[in-house]
Amino acid sequence: MSQSNLFIDIGNSAVKWRTGDSKVFSEGIENFSIKALNQTNIAWLSAVAHSDIVQEISTHFETINIIKPQKKFGNLTLSYEDPSKLGADRFAAMLGAINHFPNKPLLVIDIGSAITCDVIDKNGMHQGGLIMPGLSSLRWSFEKFKTSNLTSGSKDLANNTDDAWEHGTYAMMISAINYQIESFQSNFSDGIIAICGGMIKEIKQELPDSIEFFDNLVLDGLESYSQSMG
Fold first, then answer.
1. Which of 94, 167, 178, 196 has a 20 to 30 A CA-CA distance from 213?
2. What is the pLDDT of the chain when averaged over all its residues?
């Protein structure tokens, strides 16, 4: 059995994992099977939902390390009075961003089932954050218009109700994200904006060119966390 580490991120809608040779895999929650995970003795886990999967994984490996937000860890100091109230994914994403860009002001945005934004100053002091509904939640937020269609790509005015709802919810999401970017840039002119999440490829063209895009910032943070823990 391999002794290399395995890094696992359990989100609301998908499970991602990275092997010791940096290969990344992803599976939707409804199709995920623990049999898909690579065999290893040591696993590092971030989870924001699906306690049943967490429990199953916990019994699958010899050593399982479940990441828990801490008031101060490495160069990051959280603003939350109770760190346990902060999602492990946000904590890990911030650690990943700091590892990539030490001593820089950071805006960390994760665009998934929910959209989270966190600001960190150059000294690693967390300034606070926001949680907003992702596109799926927006599209289901009004009974009369709700749809499971997650097609993105247009903010134009529409001439039928279905398109008007889809374009409007997409415009709302993009506007909210860009507002946070503009606000951050006005306060931290030398700051770095790091964005991750399942929708980044679909909306990349809507965001400033200066943004740093990451496929797996939470997994990066898990790896950084594991190295700090020895």
1. 167
2. 93
